[in-house]
Amino acid sequence: MASGAQEKQYTPSLLSFFIYNPTFGPREGEEEKKILFYHPSEVEKNEKIRNVGLCEAIVQFTRTFCPTKPAKSLHTQKNRQFFFEPEEHFWIVMVVRNPMIEKPNKDGKPPAIEYQEEEILDTVYGAVVRQCYSMYKLFNGTFGRAMEAGGVELLIQKLEKFFYRYLQTLHLQSCDLLDVFGGISFFPLDKMTYLKIQSFVNRVEESLSLIKYTAFLYNDQLIWSGLEQDDMRILYKYLTTSLFPRHSEPELAGRDSPLRPEVTGNLLHYGRFLTGPTNLKDPEAKFRFPKIFVSAEEGYEELHLIVYKAMSAAACFMISATVELTREFCEQLDSLVGPQLTLLASDICEQFTINRRISGPEKEPQFKFIYFNHMNLAEKSTIHMRKTASVCLTSVHPDLMKILGDINCDFARFDEDEEIIVKAMTDYWVVGKKSDQRELYVILNQKNANLILVNEEVKRLCATQFNNIFFLD
Amino acid sequence: MDGESRNATVPWDNAMLSPVDRLRSDRADSPTPGLVEGTEPGAVQRSAIFYHAQSYEDLTAEAENEAQRAPEPDRPQGHNEDEIDALVGEKSVERRLNNDPSSESSTKEEDVSSEAWRSHKKHVFVLSEAGKPIYTRYGTEEALSSTMGVMMALVSFVEAEKNIIRSIHADGCKVVFLTKSPLVLVGVSKTGQSDKELLRELQYIYYQIVSLLTLTQLNHIFQHKQNYDLRRLLAGSEYLTDNLLRRLERDPGLLLSAVTCLPLASSARDVVSSSLQAAKAKNLVFSILLAGDRLVTLVRKKDQFLHHIDLHLVFNLVGSSSSFREGEGWTPICLPKFNTAGFFHAHISYLEPASELCLILVSTDREDFFNMSECKQRFMERLSKRSAYQAMKEALKCPSYSVEQVGIPELRHFLYKSKSSGLYTSPEFPEVYQSDEEQERLMGLYQDLHSCLHHPTRPLRYFYRCSETENLLARLTSGFELYLCFSPLATKALAVSAVDKLLKWIRKEEDRFFILSPLTY
Amino acid sequence: MAEEHYLELSENPVQFEHASSVNNVFFDEANKQVFAVRSGGATGVVVKGPDDKCSVAFRMDDKGEVKCIKFSIGNKILAVQRTLKSVDFINFIPDYPHTEFTQECKTKNANILGFCWTSWNEIVFITDQGIEFYQVFPDKRSLKLLKSQSINVNWYQYCPETAVILLSTTVQGNVLQPFAFRNGTMTKMSKFEIELPVIPKPAKLSLSERDIAMATIYGQLYVMYLKHHSRTVNSPGAEVVLYHLPRDGTCKKSHVLKLNMTGKFALNIVDNLVVVHHQSSQTSLIFDIKLKEPDCAVNSHQPVLPARSIHPYRIPLSGPAAVPTQPPVPCQLYSSSWSVFQPDIIISASEGYLWYLQVKLPPTVHLLQDKGKLMDFLLRRRDCKMVILSVCSQILEGQEKASLPVVATVFDKLNQVYKEYLEAEQSYAAATESGTSRGGAAQKRPVRTQAVIDQSDMYTHVLSSFTERKDVTHKFIIAVVMEYIRSLNQYQITVQHYLYELVIKTLVQNNLFYMLHQFLQYHVLSDSKPLACLLLSLESTYPPAHQLSLDMLKRLSTANDEIVEVLLSKQQVLGALRFIRSVGGHDNVSARKFLDAARQTGDQMLFYTVFRSFQQRNQRLRGNPSFNPGEHCEEHVAHFKQLFGEQALMKPSTV
Question: Per the record, where are the segments of Basic and acidic residues compositional bias (chain B) (predicted)?
Answer without folding.
Answer: 66-81
